[in-house]
Each structure stands twice: as C-alpha cells, then as structure tokens.
C-alpha cells in the first residue's frame, strides 16, 4: 500500500492525476485567452477571473498531492 | 499575395485540445507552428522540415515517453544543433529535471501553462536557435570566416595589451616600493588602465555589434578622465561624439553627469563662446578609485 492506495493501483492513480492536470491546463489556457481578447463584459470578466483563480487553486492542490505521492516508482 | 512563412515551431501533445490552444496562443503573437499528436508524427515532420527550430513537447504522453522522444530528436538530428527543446510537464520532479538537463532543454514549462510564459519561452528559444544558426553559418562561409578571424585578431591584440599593461603596472609598483625617485606617476598607470578599458569596450562593440549598446554615460566619463590625464580640454560636442550615441541621448547624459556632481561646464578663458566639460574633483576621485580597483583586480588575477 502507498498512502492507502493498493500498489497495483498506484500507476492508475498517477495517470488519473495527470489527466486532471491536463484538463486544468486546457481550462486555464482557454480562460486566459478569453480574458486576453478583452471582449468580455465586466460581469463576464469577473466570472472568468474567478474561474481562472479556482483552476489555479486546484492546480496548487494537485501539486501538493504529487509531493505526497513522491517520485514515480522505477519500472 | 505573400507566400506563407514556414513554421519554425513544432508542438507535440497527445491531447488535441491542448495542441489547438497552444497554436492559438502562439498564433496571437505571430508565431506560426505545426502540431503533432504523437512522437512518430513529430519525427516525420522534423525529417521533412529542417526549418523547425523549436520543439515544444509534453513529457507525459500515454503512448510515448516525452523524454525518450526528445532524446531521439537529439540523436537523429544531431546535425541541427540549433534545435531548441521545450519540455512541458505537469509534475516537477528531480528525474524530469535531470532528464531535461541531459537533453540540453532550453526551458521547462509547468502545467497549467500560462499563455504569457509559453510565448516568452518560445520566443527566447527562437532567438537562441537563430544565434546558433548564425554562428554556424559564420564559421562555414568565407565572409563569416573573415569576420571571425577579425574578432580573433581583436581578442589577441587585446590580450597582448592587457599583458603589457599588467607588466608595466607590476614593474612601476616594484619601482615605487624600492626607490624614492624615478617611480612611474600614478597618473600614467591610470591612463594605461583607462586605455585598456576603452579597448575592452571597442572589442566588445566589434564582437557583439549593436546587440550590446554602448553605455553613453560611462563612455563619456572615461573620455573625460582620459582628457584630464592627458591635459586636454573637451568641448561639449567632442564629448558627446565620444559617447557613440545619438546627440540628444549624449546631451541628456552629460546633464546627468553634471547633476550628479561628476562633471562641470567650464568656459574657455580664451573664447567665451566656447564651453568645455571636465571632471569635478569628486568625479576625478571616483574615477581614480575605480581605475585603481580595476588595476588591482587585474594584477591579482594575473
């Protein structure tokens, strides 16, 4: 067991975490691009910024999870 | 209609949405790029597109290990040393950092990527690739080889000057220590050091060209010191010309030197219409301090 995760599931968990990060990355890029174009109204802009902030916080949490998990086991 | 500019950037990611977004981000800064969804596709593109200078690749791809792919790129395209590799990763780990160093990666981007950092990294990588290409073509074509030879000659002459200055300084210091008379004046030593510094500046300009701009205030301060030590007067115009900068910039910098208490305007006693600029006692003392410090450092490292 690694941090309560069965050993044969550790790689799957890591893969899922990567996927979550990839999805967050896409959301951040998309939101940043929408903000950059400057066409959004003030209210939409606030929502976009809040969403972006939420994504960044989620990414920070994910980084903490990576630190807890430690380096990838050697194959 | 102008022909399309060939893409110099290749972005590799198994996630199509990420590819599309990264292309849009780069496109908004007029950086056109090609995309590949797999390492195999990327290698195929690279084989037929020598104009690609930067490869941006995700490290974690389900079918390919990004590090392995970039290693293959380095091996297969060893004849393209200008190729810049940018790694994209979701997880900062020691193993990825070491791998990136081995691959001589030019940068390392963490997901979620910010558009600004992607643009900046790619732009820097393109500039680096361009410099490597220029150095390589300069060393192979004849005109470039001549230019390199000139640079080598300048560097050689400079090294010789430096050696001579240091030797003269050492012997004058020995003489000053051993005899009460006949020792070299400190002004002579300062003048030699100053000339050496000016030669260093000239060499810097000849090697780096306009990429490294002259520092007008320093150029003029050095010229004022040289004139003072040689017992010469400098008009505002000659001083401005020595700055190697546009006249308006030079005049502003002269004002800065005056405001800073390092230089002062002096009327020419023989012609009231003419004004000289010279170092103030404080400017002189500071330059003396700087030159002595420089000479000491040069002696210590010799």
Class inferred from helices and paired strands of chain B: alpha/beta
Helical amount of chain A: over 70%
Low-confidence blocks of residues of chain A = none
CATH class of the largest domain in chain B: Mainly Alpha
How would you describe the overall organization of this protein?
- The complex is a heterodimer of chains A (75) and B (302).
- Chain A has one domain (7-69).
- Helix content of chain A is 75%, strand content 0%.
- Chain A has 2 helices and no strands.
- The longest helix of chain A is centred in the N-terminal third of the chain and has 28 residues, at 10-37.
- Chain A is elongated.
- The mean pLDDT of chain A is 84.
- Chain B is elongated.
- Chain B has helices at 16-27, 39-48, 66-76, 94-102, 115-140, 142-178, 186-208, 216-230, 236-242, 247-259, 281-301; strands spanning 9-12, 33-36, 54-58, 84-89, 107-110, 263-268, 271-279.
- Chain B folds into 2 domains: 9-140, Response regulator (Rossmann fold), CATH 3.40.50.2300; 144-301, Arc Repressor Mutant, subunit A.
- In chain B, 61% of the residues lie in helices and 13% in strands.
- The termini of chain B are far apart.
- With 302 residues, chain B is of the alpha/beta class.
- In chain B, helix 8 (216-230) crosses helix 10 (247-259).
- Classes of the chains: A mainly alpha (75), B alpha/beta (302).
- The A-B interface holds A 15, 17-18, 21-22, 24-30, 32-33, 36, 55-56, 59, 62-63, 66, 71-72 and B 15, 17-18, 21-22, 24-25, 28, 60, 62, 90-95, 111-115.
Task: Please specify the SSE layout and strand pairing.
The complex is a heterodimer of chains A (75) and B (302).
Chain A: H1 10-37, H2 42-69
Chain B: E1 9-12, H1 16-27, E2 33-36, H2 39-48, E3 54-58, H3 66-76, E4 84-89, H4 94-102, E5 107-110, H5 115-140, H6 142-178, H7 186-208, H8 216-230, H9 236-242, H10 247-259, E6 263-268, E7 271-279, H11 281-301
Parallel strand pairs in B: 1-2, 1-3, 3-4, 4-5
Antiparallel strand pairs in B: 6-7
Helix pairs in contact in B: 5-6, 6-7, 7-8, 8-10, 9-10
